[in-house]
Structure formats: structure tokens, C-alpha cells
Specification:
Diaminopimelate Epimerase, Chain A, domain 1; alpha/beta; 6-stranded mixed β-sheet; 12 strands; inorganic pyrophosphatase (n-terminal core)
Length: 339
């Protein structure tokens, strides 16, 4: 893949001459956010750059095996330290998000920072707040795009096994283990290059997916019991209340992937998972075919993402949010049936 040489040259200049460098990602970091951040962190450390990773809040335990995890600063845990690092940065790198609104508690600090900025991201409709933007919505993941950026910089020889594992994590998780439509021949070529760096696919899958506790499985059981497949539309709705989460000792990451179970139902083209967390309803959307959940999330649920995977939220109660969704989705019946 060829990237704009002018952008690569400017990125190289900033990466080689700016100090210190602070790598950031979006609120509630996932595998792609942490994989791209820690993969790049490892490469820059090998280049003897002064670099830190600052994230808006903590992330699931099943991602904390990655090399460099112990050096990550979480804003929600230490806002004074994290804010100071952002303020003093000579270069801010924004990974896996394209709007400062997606940085949660870090938004104010990031907005006021005077540093140069680079964005590497694969989400739709990016805000233009950076000096160098690598944005490609055709990429399966920010980690895949990161590999291409490093390749064009001539730095892939700095990707060792640890960095490769980080990047592979983002690709694997954002493609649903290479099942989603975003998976392309190029995605597999990049994954293959990472395997050549020493990544063991079975070990990676075990680290990410074989992490169930008894409580998590009981929470999943409860969620599946709530599944409702709409009578006249290829839509599945799964929900969990705050009481459900509390009953099974919910920890960050426990509901990861629950939304995908709806899509496994024969004939379902849209799955929605709603969970009552932190006084609001957090919503995950997944779709098959051409139905665009990014549009649905942006227009009605204060969110967005990709065509087949998006997120949103609601300030209404869980019951009210479910009913509101049912009222809204009727208007998309033709699009769903023709997708």
C-alpha cells in the first residue's frame, strides 16, 4: 500500500524532531486502540525517542499482557500526571479516534495542548485538528494502517515479536478474528508479515478470548435470555441492566463481544446490545451486508463508528431506550430487508 509521500515525510520530521512524544487513544480503549498505541510505543523506544502512552481511562485486563502495559498512564487514575504529560508534549499522536470528543476525560487537556499532532485512524468523518492525518476507512483497523505507516517510514525492521503481537491484537479484534467485511487480502498480508515476526496465532487467540470467569459466563447467559428477535424485521436486541451487571460482579471488558451473538441467529442482519453503565445506556451495533449502523448511531444515538460496527449511548432508561430503538428501526425496514 502506498501512502502520500508528503504526509510520510512530514510525519517522519515530526517523529524524529519532536520531544517528548505522547501517544493517546480513545475513551474505553479496546484491542485496536491499545495494540496500535503499544506497538508504536515499542518501535519509538527502539528509535530512542522520549515517548509516553497516556490513555483516557483503564482498559480490560485481557489486554494488559502487552509489552509496555506497565508504562501506560491512565488519565482517570492520575489526572495530574497524565495532564502534565499532555501539556508538555512536543508531539501528540492520536490513535484510533478522529475527534477530540472521543477522548473522554482527556478532551480539555488535549484541546488546550500546543503540541504538533499526528492522527492514525480508520473511522469515518474525521475532524481536522491535526498537522498530519492518516485516515483510511477501508482499513480493517488502526493497527493495519499503523503497519503501512511504519512500512512507508522504513521502520518495519524495528517491529519485533512484542510489537507484532500488539499490532496483531488490534487486527484480530477489530476484524472479529478475520470474519468481518473489513477483512481484505491486504489485511491477511499484514497479518502474515506479523506472523513472520514471531506471532503465534493460537497463543494470541487464547490471551484475548480464553479469559472467561464463572461470573462472566453467567452474565452472558443472562444477556442471552433477554435476546429479542423482532417479529417483522431481521433485528436482535440484547440488554443488561445495572442490576444484572452488579449481580455478577461486572468488570471492564466482561461484555466484550456480547453484541455478536445476535448476528449468529439465522436471518438476523442487525444486532443491538444495550447495557446500563455509569448512569446511562451504552449501545453496540453490529450488522451484516450493506446496512450502515454508523449512520444509525450518528443520527439517533450520539455515536458512530463503521458501516458494520458502531457504538452509541442514551440518557433515557433501559426500557425507554429499547422502545425508542424499536420505534426508530421501523423507518429502516426497507434498508434492512434489502441489505
Amino acid at each position: 500500500m502506498k501512502l502520500d509521500p508528503a504526509l510520510i515525510n512530514e510525519a517522519r520530521r515530526l517523529l524524529e524532531n519532536s520531544s517528548p512524544i505522547v501517544i493517546t487513544n480513545h475513551v474505553n480503549p479496546d484491542g485496536d486502540a491499545m495494540g496500535s498505541a503499544l506497538g508504536l510505543y515499542g518501535v519509538l523506544k527502539k528509535l530512542d525517542r522520549d515517548v509516553k502512552v497516556v490513555v483516557p481511562n483503564t482498559y480490560p485486563d485481557f489486554l494488559k499482557w502487552m509489552e509496555g502495559d506497565a508504562k501506560v498512564v491512565a488519565f482517570d487514575e492520575n489526572p495530574e500526571l497524565a495532564g502534565g504529560l499532555v501539556e508538555k508534549a512536543g508531539l501528540l499522536i492520536h490513535l484510533d479516534y478522529n475527534s477530540l470528543k472521543r477522548s473522554g476525560p482527556m478532551q480539555e487537556s488535549l484541546t488546550s495542548a500546543e503540541a504538533n499532532r499526528i492522527m492514525i485512524d480508520h473511522h469515518q468523518q474525521p475532524d481536522n485538528f491535526v498537522d498530519v492525518m492518516f485516515s483510511d476507512t477501508e482499513m480493517s483497523s488502526t493497527c493495519e494502517l499503523m503497519y503501512h505507516v511504519l512500512h512507508e517510514l522504513g521502520w518495519t525492521h524495528h517491529i519485533g515479536r512484542h510489537e507484532a503481537e500488539c499490532l496483531y491484537t488490534g487486527i484480530m479484534t477489530d476484524t472479529g478474528s478475520f470474519r468481518f467485511n473489513s477483512t481484505t487480502p491486504t489485511t491477511h498480508q499484514v497479518a502474515g508479515a506479523l506472523l513472520e515476526k514471531g506471532v503465534e496465532p493460537n497463543e494470541m487467540a487464547s490471551r484475548i478470548y480464553d479469559i472467561n470467569t464463572s461470573n462472566r459466563l453467567q452474565l452472558l447467559s443472562t444477556a442471552l435470555l433477554t435476546m429479542e428477535v423482532l417479529e417483522d424485521l431481521p433485528v436482535a436486541i440484547i440488554r443488561l441492566s445495572a442490576e444484572d451487571l452488579e449481580r455478577y460482579g461486572y468488570k471492564k471488558g466482561d461484555t466484550e463481544g456480547f453484541v455478536n451473538y445476535g448476528l449468529s441467529v439465522l436471518g438476523v442482519k442487525l444486532s443491538v446490545f444495550m447495557a446500563e453503565k455509569d448512569g446511562r445506556i451504552k449501545i453496540s451495533f453490529r450488522s451484516k451486508g450493506s446496512f450502515d449502523v454508523n449512520v444509525l448511531a450518528r443520527e439517533h444515538f450520539n455515536g458512530g463508528g463503521h458501516k458494520n460496527a458502531a457504538g452509541g449511548s442514551s440518557e433515557q432508561s433501559l426500557t425507554e431506550t429499547v422502545q425508542r430503538f424499536k420505534d426508530i428501526i421501523v423507518d429502516y425496514s426497507d434498508a434492512l430487508k434489502n441489505s
